Amino acid sequence: MITLGDYLLVSGILFSIGFAGVMLRRNLIIILMSLELMLNAANLSLVAFSRFRVDPNGLPNYNAQVFVFFVITVAAAEIAVGLAILVALFRARQTTDVKDISSLKF
Amino acid sequence: MSPFLFWIFALMTLIFGAGVVINRNPVASALSLVVSFLGLAALFMSLDAFFVGIIQVLVYAGAVMVLFLFIIMLLNLQTEERRRINGLAAAGGIGVALILLVQICFVIGHFQAARQTFPPLARSTTDDVWNIGALLFSNYNLPFQIIGVLVLVATIGVVLLSKRQPR
Question: Could you say which of A7, A74, B13, B101 has the lowest number of CB atoms within 10 Å?
Answer without folding.
Answer: A74
